Amino acid sequence: MQISKGVEWAAHAAAMMIGLPEGRGLKAEALACYHEVPTAYMAKQLQALSKAGIVQSSRGAHGGYRLAKLATEITLWDITAAIEGRGPAFRCTEIRQNGPCGLKRKNCKSPCHIAASFAVAEAAFRDSLKAVTLADLGMQVVRDSTQEHLLNVMGWLGEEAVPLSGTSS
Fold it and tell me: Where would one find coiled-coil regions in this protein (predicted)?
């Protein structure tokens, strides 16, 4: 299974928003610049997070993004689903019914064993992502970073965080 760059970028952007003071947000351009990624693509990921209710957006001169919920309420699965969708990664097309020795539809009385195995693995994958919150990640960053790095990040946030006008989802 390959997860798109958009999931990585969205997760990093959301993690940056943990440190925002009340009433302030980050512009898509600032997040894109910080991570050295294309602004249009970062904006696309932020729009998906907004549509999923993970971030709030505010438009205009005083526009930007901030978390719509507490970091303890947002999981890596929420972010992944917002970007990739909630549908299954594996889609069985019943090819066991194809070819010269294909099974007749009436003989396929149990689910395809391959599809069932992928479903079990995907459920474990999703459960694993559901167990990790943005708050968990934030605590790991704080624990693993040097004081100098944390001060640099907080300084950057202080410079780039903009006061938000009314927010919209």
Answer: none
DSSP 8-state code for residue 162: E
The CA–CA distances, whole Å, from 57 to 37, 49, 67, 107 equal 20, 9, 9, 52
- pLDDT tens for each residue of 79-138: 999 999 999 888 888 877 888 888 888 888 888 899 999 999 999 999 999 999 999 999
Which structure tokens are listed for 107?
A: 């003989």
Angle 98-103-107 from CA coordinates, rounded to 5°: 145
What's the one-letter identity of residue 154?
M
- Residues in the chain, overall count: 169
Architecture of the domain whose range is 5-163:
Orthogonal Bundle (1.10)
In the chain, where the domains are located: 5-163
pTM beyond 0.85: yes
Q: What residues have CB less than 8 Å from 17, skipping those under 6 apart?
A: 25, 26, 55, 65, 66, 67
